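anyone seen this seq b4? input:
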Amino acid sequence: MADKALVIISSGEEAREKALTGIMYAVNAVKYKWLDDVRIIFFGPSEKLILSDDDEIRGNIEVIQKAGIIPTACAAIARDEGIEPKLIEMGIKVEYVGSIISSLIKEGYAVLTF
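predicted toks r here
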């Protein structure tokens, strides 16, 4: 049984509720100590979503950060979209995530995709 999870949020504005569900799961998994380790990666359209003026999403990102989780966003997408500086300013780590995802899978993280 995995005691660590990788939460990948790829849904954007078109599926806001789906993205929010994943964010809230990550928040609660940390808050209630359901798992020993939770990582969260924003990938694709979700990178723009977290930069939107959506107070609920931004508030949950802050909760994640206060819990000690440093969210990561995909550098390739952030650079293509011209949003890398805004993500960094928000406290999001911007890195190429392909190898990160692969490493975490090899380390036994359960992958949840929203």
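The chain has one domain: 4-113. The first strand starts at residue 4 and ends at 9. kinda curious what u guys think
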